[in-house]
Write a structure and sequence with these properties.
heterodimer; A: 155 residues; alpha+beta; Ubiquitin-like (UB roll); DNA polymerase, domain 1; 2 domains; globular; B: 720 residues; Aldehyde Oxidoreductase, domain 4; 3 domains; 20 helices
């Protein structure tokens, strides 16, 4: 049994310790918002937060997340109230939407660390996340918008 | 501590909107005289209109027969219904259609999402569905109030009796309306009265795509479901000769190892044990004729085929004489590689085969064929198979397959292990799984007249056909020419008196398929690069040169002018700017690219200005998004895309060696929509073709060297 804390809830999962966190989240806990894209930490679709830091859950053995605070897209906000989610909606960012959980989780760390990111900051923080539909321009705009919302008193 | 259990059936039903049903009081409107009837030849009586359900709770559910793969169709098609229904847009919901004749494509006659056709093909039918419902709701209100229907009007989810200002909501009227006889004919709105169509409208699927709640095929879970990965042959065409599953079965969590038509399926409690199990499998494969395939020798084979005349796709005048008498002659060879679609969501499918039926959950573009493939694999009748369409994590043609292979694998595995099974493809399975954009080899020559105008143009295309031998052959192959191989070349719009375009079919076993913009993905690069070359050789401005040759094509000309104006083409600029124009899928797109090449030979695309004439626009924001996305898709192929073979095996396997454009390489993209009342075209694909030639033409102005192969190599960026 591996004890996990995900989105502020405690779980015990009966899985092999080398199982990637991604599959425990998706298949054992039913948190399917975190996506499988490459299995090699190349595309960012599986990005979650482990103790507040962006982690590629597809290459993170579940044992490494044990006892730590894991946040997935389902825990970003319960009601689409995170400034990034609002901004994503305002800019109508997603197309197929498959990569967007990972994009949002990567952007959330960026915005926490750097409340007013420049385009270069966004390039640095977001270039690990692939969007095959090509929504990059809108992601960039939405991050800037979320930064403005946050400055005006959002979360 | 929270108990960990599988999602219950009820949760699953809640999550999977595709399954539908529920207890909403609703009705299905019969439609009269739809275009679908004409296309299918099915009797009108059979054709229930299942496009619209109105609930007593005021919910307006539009049942959409085209798959949402990012192109915004779950918003655009509901807009058509809601416009004519005068619905309250905030109440509109979407449900994926099941497989049934009323949901067949109005032109293609089967349930399919492809060819950038969803909006134009439903433009009439869905507006008519909305208008018919509106008329029945008005009739119900008039009967309730005992007034003349003509004295009532519909507005934002209400029927209003104008004189007395009485009003009733659609939800209150729906039960009575469902018993009304549908009108024989309805009048559709004058476009000037549109309240929704043509206005930028927020996508209905965005909230579920930013909350993680949207259900893609990979997210489907049914009770008792197992997860499988399939060991497929390392060389296309190989079959399993023998296998040893002992070590695989020893892995904790592996339940079954079964042979299926396309390989060996390892079935486990989850993806991870299934993957480990597959790694432990020992399989001996029968050798395939493709075992010796090598990209280097393949090139020589194509070059050899290019020496021989092909099947004629277009012929004007006498090209041989035209070339012989030309003042100046030019010739070139262009080469483009196999390309994988690399949808972000790897292929997957859930199948639950039982003695009396089969349920399939998957993100598919071709439900019609998938259902039949599932029935055949399950040994059931097609009507015993239910296809539940989920969201698609990208399609680009990869999920519109003729043989239903990704569905068939899941059905065969489920049948073998007598349990619901989800087959998951890894990224490596996806990149190495075939169904690529065909490898293409083009030879092209042209002669200029003394004034510098093209007098002759000879273009030969060498590639495989993925249409011959399929159900679409009759529609797509004429006089021995596969239209998907020559589209964009055979319909060259420029005024050239002597013209010959022909096609050499390469017999080949590498599975090839539709890839976003299909033939246009290679032909546009060749014709627009070569025409640009002629313009420069003639000492003319590439914009003016094209404009003068487009006299008989006003839509091309107009969109070209529009793009040039928006990009400031007439203003002098440092070298590094190129343009291209291309018609595909009924739409006309011109793009101007601004690029630079660093001293180290690194290409950077800074800006792309794009103009599109797609006729009437339903959701302008979606048109913009599709142009932005198409440009990224095209640029990725320019910079990186290439599948190659060595000893019959695909050399690439994941995003490190099959790279994608990323945020730090994203140019500024500016999209301009040409106001147009011309025939409606598509938007999903037409943004792709012009970007490669626009970039290549821009590079020429910097290096004086022509890019003749994709992806662009560093050595091709050095100055001449």
């Amino acid at each position: 049994m591996i004890k996990l804390r995900v989105n502020r809830e405690d779980y015990a999962a009966d899985v092999s310790p080398d199982t990637p966190l991604l599959w425990v989240l998706r298949e054992t806990l039913g948190l399917t918002g975190t996506k499988f894209g490459c299995g090699m930490a190349l595309c960012g679709a599986c990005t979650v937060h482990v103790n507040g830091e962006a982690a590629r859950s597809c290459v993170t053995p579940v044992s490494r997340a044990a006892g730590k605070e894991v946040t997935t897209i389902e825990g970003l906000s319960p009601d689409l109230s995170h400034p990034l989610q609002k901004a994503w909606i305002a800019e109508d960012v997603p197309q197929c939407g498959y990569c967007q959980s990972g994009q949002l989780m990567a952007a959330a760390v960026l915005l926490r660390e750097n409340p007013r990111p420049t385009n270069a900051d966004i390039d640095d923080a977001m270039s690990g996340n692939i969007c095959r539909c090509g929504t990059y321009q809108r992601i960039r705009r939405a991050i800037h918008l979320a930064a403005r919302m946050k400055a005006k008193g959002g979360r | 501590m929270k108990e960990i259990v599988n999602l219950s059936r009820r949760d699953f039903l809640k999550a999977g909107a595709a399954i539908g049903g529920g207890l909403v009081l609703g009705f299905h409107l019969p439609l009269t005289g739809t275009t679908a009837d004409a296309a299918q030849g099915t009797p009108a009586a059979f054709d229930l209109n299942a496009f619209l359900r109105i609930g007593a709770d005021e919910s307006v559910t539009v049942i959409v027969n085209h798959s949402e793969m990012g192109q915004g169709i779950y918003t655009a098609l509901p807009m058509l219904v809601a416009e004519e229904l005068d619905a309250d847009w905030s109440k509109v919901r979407v449900e994926a259609a099941p497989v049934a004749p009323p949901y067949n494509h109005t032109v293609y006659g089967i349930q399919i999402t492809g060819g950038s056709s969803s909006t134009w093909s439903e433009w009439e039918r869905l507006r008519r569905a909305g208008a018919t419902a509106r008329a029945m709701l008005i009739a119900a209100a008039a009967e309730t109030w005992k007034v003349d229907a003509a004295s009532c009007r519909a507005q934002n989810g209400y029927v209003i009796h104008t004189a007395t200002r009485r009003r009733l909501t659609y939800g209150r009227l729906v039960e009575k309306a469902s018993s009304m006889t549908p009108p024989q004919s309805v009048t559709l709105k004058d476009p000037k009265d549109f309240k929704l169509i043509g206005k930028p409208t927020k996508r209905l699927d965005t909230p579920e795509k930013v909350s993680g709640k949207g259900v893609f095929g990979l997210d489907v879970k049914v009770p008792g479901m197992l997860v499988a990965v399939v060991a497929r042959p390392p060389v296309f065409g190989e079959k399993v000769k023998s296998f040893n599953a002992e070590k695989a079965k020893a892995i904790a969590g592996v339940r079954h190892v079964v042979e299926i038509d396309r390989g060996v399926a390892v079935v486990a409690d989850g993806f991870w044990p299934a993957k480990l199990g597959r790694e432990a499998l020992e399989i001996v494969w029968d050798e395939s004729p493709l075992a010796g395939l090598d990209s280097r020798t393949q090139r020589a084979q194509y070059a050899e085929l290019a020496q021989r005349p092909g099947a004629v796709a277009r012929k004007e005048g006498d090209v041989t004489a035209g070339l012989a008498s030309a003042a100046k002659k030019f010739e070139a060879v262009y080469e483009l590689p196999y390309l994988a679609h690399a949808t972000m969501e790897p292929l997957n499918c859930v199948a639950d085969v039982r003695a009396d039926g089969c349920d399939v959950w998957t993100g598919t573009q071709l439900q019609g064929f998938d259902r039949d493939a599932a029935a055949q694999a399950a040994g059931l009748k097609p009507e015993q198979v239910k296809i539940h369409t989920t969201l698609l994590g990208g399609g680009f043609g990869r999920r519109a397959v003729f043989d239903g292979h990704f569905v068939r694998e899941a059905v065969q595995t489920s049948k073998a292990v007598k349990a619901p099974v989800k087959v998951i493809w890894s990224r490596e399975d996806d990149i190495r799984g075939g169904f690529y954009r065909p490898l293409c080899y083009h030879t092209i020559s042209a002669g200029l007249d003394p004034a510098g105008n093209p007098a002759a143009w000879q273009h030969r295309i060498v590639c495989q056909s993925f249409m011959i031998g399929t159900p679409f052959e009759a529609a797509m192959v004429k006089d021995g020419v596969d239209d998907t191989a020559v589209e964009g070349a055979a319909d060259l719009p420029y005024e050239i008196p002597n013209l010959l375009v022909d096609w050499q079919r390469v017999p080949g076993g590498v599975p090839t398929h539709f890839w976003r913009s299909v033939g246009h993905s290679h032909t546009a690069f060749v014709v627009e690069s070569f025409l640009d070359e002629l313009a420069h050789a003639a000492g003319k401005d590439p914009y003016e040169y094209r404009r003068a040759l487009l006299v008989k094509h006003p839509r091309h000309k107009r969109v070209l002018e529009f793009a040039a104006e928006k990009a400031g083409w007439k203003k002098p600029l440092a070298p590094g700017r190129g343009l291209a124009i291309h018609e595909s899928f009924g739409s006309f797109v011109a793009q101007v690219a601004e690029v630079s090449v660093s001293k180290e030979g690194k290409l950077r695309v800074h800006r792309v200005v794009c103009a599109i004439d797609c006729g009437p626009v339903v959701n302008p924001d979606t048109v913009r998004a599709q142009m932005e996305g198409g440009i990224v898709f095209g640029l990725t192929a320019v910079l990186y895309g290439e599948i190659t073979f060595e000893k019959g095996r695909v050399r690439q396997r994941n995003f490190h060696d099959y790279q994608m454009l990323r945020m730090n390489e994203m140019p500024e993209v500016e999209v301009h929509i040409v106001p147009s009342t011309e025939k409606m075209g598509g938007v999903g694909e037409p943004g792709v073709p012009p970007v490669a030639p626009a970039v290549a033409n821009a590079i020429f102005t910097l290096t004086r060297k022509r890019i003749r192969r994709l992806p662009i190599r560093a050595e091709d960026l050095r100055k001449a």
